[in-house]
Amino acid sequence: MSAFNRASHSTRMRVLVVGGGFAGAMAAVRLAGRSKGRVEVTVVNPRAAFVNRIRMHHVAVGRPVPFPSLSSLLGSGVTFVEGYVTALEPELGRAEVSGPAGIRTVSFDRVVLATGSTTERAPIAGHQHVYGVGDIDAAHRLRPALASLSEGSTVTVVGGGLTGLETVAEIAESRPDLDARLLTAGEIGGWFDTRGQEYVRGTLGRLRVDAVGGTRVRAAEPGRLHLDSGIEVPSDLTVWCGGFAAPPLPRESGIAVDEQGAVLTDAAMRSISHPSVLAVGDSGHAPGPGGGRYSMSCQFAFPSGAHAADVLLREALDDAGENPGREDADALDLGFLGRCVSLGRRAAILQLTDKEDVATGRSAVTGRTAVMIKRVQLAGMAAAVSTERRLPGLVRWPKGEPVTARHTQTVTG
Ligand SMILES: Cc1cc2nc3c(=O)[nH]c(=O)nc-3n(C[C@H](O)[C@H](O)[C@H](O)COP(=O)(O)OP(=O)(O)OC[C@H]3O[C@@H](n4cnc5c(N)ncnc54)[C@H](O)[C@@H]3O)c2cc1C
Which of 10, 140, 340, 407 stands 20 to 30 A from 315 (CA)? Predict the structure, then answer.
């Protein structure tokens, strides 16, 4: 990687972080803190608030969710610009930002794409009759639609992954007057180990969720869904949890992406097509331990953001002559630990996984203990960023080796 061009402008490396969610906020505070003024860090985000995305289903059912100030969370070492990056020219180091102050250009030497993901538009006929819950705008649209349903109406959640399970349980618990249904192509709770599956199915049963596996939805129209089997089922409101995709910015900017629109990167989070671009969190597709990409999760978002910050810090130090003998940036070394999934307020399950995010046969933790762990996780998202801002470099993550000897503070998803 060649040195950034400092001749024509500032003597400090200018890093633009696009997106102030989990990965972007972590990258920004770590880089600003660790570089001690050697790097100018700017974050562009459409909202002045920090959105805790793992609570979008709470927003949808009307539970109070705090939205801390993003600029306060980022602190004075980071410049915050409220707006949306509408165009990116990596070769020229320019981004066009559209925000409340109008349209402006932000120049950069390096850009970190941390634009997250959204619920993919339902890939079925009649998708306009289907709601999402994958981002704040979708959750805000879903909320009044759900609130306006009258007693006895049917709500269908399509997709039985972790987000679908959390969403249907939350709806069933908060609106027991509705008929809640889960339709999914796979087995209900099929990702969990045997005990975990029993717990998930038992909990959905107690919440009176009609959970049907082995079912594909083919089309939606007002008041009903058409299944692949040819059957029609009533659905007054349908929520799609069938998959996530990255926003279009990198693809539209000519950056190499995968089929979900995520930036293809090397293991150091650097774009394979544009070396001045790094991509982290859900919008980055880095090679994971098993050969595929890391799962979209907090467990990848925070470490990938922190790792990108370390890669850029090393580059800035090297260019300043303070880090002679620099080798190529390290690959991210990350092992997964487990997934904590809530099923309403009173039930949760912590499923232990191997480092590649595959559920292991080790017993899942359920009940009160898991509910407490989930609460800590929900509260820990903004706390992880503010802790890193106050103590730059503190956040560590489990490596591919046994984790106990390798981490000091673990951020789990
Ligand atoms: C309901 C729900 C529950 C979940 N539960 C869990 C869980 O329990 N555990 C887990 O590990 N994961 C969970 N996830 C997934 C997890 O939330 C994501 O993997 C994580 O948020 C990814 O972080 P990120 O920083 O990549 O993206 P985000 O946190 O989504 O941040 C992306 C940011 O970029 C901004 N942005 C997008 N485009 C632009 C642009 N052009 N210009 C400027 N800004 C832009 C967005 O507005 C947003 O603020 C859940 C997701 C959902 C929807």
Answer: 407
CA distances from 272 to 122, 258, 265, 327, 366 (A): 29, 11, 5, 18, 41
- With a 6 Å cutoff on the Cβ, whether 58 touches ligand 1 is no
C-alpha closest to that of 348 among 380, 379, 317, 376: 376
Which residue type does 302 have?
Answer: F
265-296 tens-digit pLDDT: 999 999 999 999 999 999 999 998 777 899 99
Name the pairing type of β-strands 13-18 and 110-113: parallel
Binned at pLDDT 50, 70 and 90, residue 402 comes out as very low
* Cα 134 to ligand 1 centre (Å): 8
Alpha carbon distance 143, 175 (integer Å): 12
Report pLDDT for 386.
98
pLDDT of res. 363:
76
Domains of the chain: 13-117+246-332 (3.50.50.60), 119-240 (3.50.50.60)
The least confident of 127-131, 240-244, 269-273 is 240-244
